[in-house]
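Supplementary Methods S3. Complex input for the glutamine-bound model.
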Amino acid sequence: MAEQNDLIRLSAAAQADGLASGDFSSAELTAAHLDRIDAVDGDLNAFLHVSREEALEVARDVDARRAAGETLHRLAGVPIAVKDVVVTRGIPTTAGSKILEGWVPPYDATLVEKIRDARLPILGKTNMDEFAMGSSTESSAYGRTLNPWGEDRIPGGSGGGSAAAVAAFEAPLAIGTDTGGSIRQPAAMTGSVGVKPTYGSVSRYGLIAMASSLDQAGPCTRTVEDSALLHELIAGHDPKDSTSLRDPVAAFGEHARRRDVKGMRIGVIEELEGEGFAPEVRARFEESLALLEQAGAEIVRVACPNFRYALGAYYLIMPSEASSNLAKFDGMRFGQRIVPEGGATAEAVMKATRGAGFGAEVKRRILLGTYALSAGYYDAYYGSAQKVRTLVQRDFAAAFESVDVLASPTAPTGAFRFGENAEDPMAMYLNDVATIPANLAGVPGISLPSGLAEDGMPAGIQFLAPAFADHRLYEVGGALEALLEDSWGGPLLDKAPELKGGAK
Ligand code: GLN
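Predicted complex, serialized as structure tokens:
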């Protein structure tokens, strides 16, 4: 049997190959990851819940089926972590909120059903900003998650738990959700890979909705190919989601292995490379572009003038939709119920439950959204934001007439320190400036590491493609990853400091 430390450092694709050729069993592989979680997650806090027994049971079942000669899914037996905003039958699901403490869903999200059908052991549920609102995971009601690259650093958000789990070798695969960047930005902060698929290509059934017109689940991994393989697994039409697409799912894994960018036209978004972006982040971005150019890609500058209004539009549309989606947490149906002393009318129970159950950021956004939707202000705020959304979509459409993909740094800076932006919502929101346009337009995006920026923290580069052209992200991402790893002499995560540990 290979050393445990070797097993957990393999990519998911290599783990799948090792299982198929009998080098190790899924029970060994799953136990190795659970042991890693036990050893380091006490400090890291990437997991809110670890489902050790269930995961090992699935692993042993995969091993037995393989031994009996059954044909299995390529990723069968490869363990996975799931962001806690995705409902899992029999496994507690809180969306990082006190209001859902103790809730055990009676059903699976469609993407979880697919994961279970393909027999990937689910290691547990990962930490996140409460109801996916945030860019640092500091707004989780269950404590912060550390960035494996530095204990004083945020892992990004809202899906900091999923990104930290893959970057710390606790899981080779994780699920995230991206409403305004929550897969891509944590990937950038932790030196990992994250993909937001085309809106509607992965079912939203069973995601605890934040902003329904923006939410999209996708893969968090350490390699581009692993994201491609996980994307293939979770995508596809679902009659339970009215916005689910009917298009067939492409063989993304093959695209990731193609590694050919000759003749590919890459547009650098002028509005997302200059002011506000840290010098080292920009330098890594330029170096990545130079490598792609040497490999035969054509780099052009593209103007997307309305992107400068995207952040403002997002922070009206997102809270508006969230204020409506979160109305169902009323102390009657799910999780917590707080009955105030004295008369317990339904209204008093709702008020007490929501007052105690929601954190400050969630309350801020409910207020913002309710205000933006109120009769007197609807046109001025929500209506205007929707017009901006159309303009952003037109910018994308115009850009994609002349280029195959667009590129920008994923986030303006590397991982910042805990507390640095926590008191100032505007500073926190500004971190999403590069990721939000894709959500407003429904187009797909990938983030992969571009190198180390200020303070030795990872920086990310993002590529965006037209809707339904997700495969282009894997082509350019796979090519750049190979070029960069050649220049670094191995994966960026090999340079991450050894985790000190701290038992769970
Ligand atoms: N950081 C963004 C926000 O706070 C994005 C969140 C997300 O994608 N879920 O809204």
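The chain has one domain: 4-306+391-495. The domain at 4-306+391-495 is CATH 3.90.1300.10 (Amidase signature (AS) enzymes).
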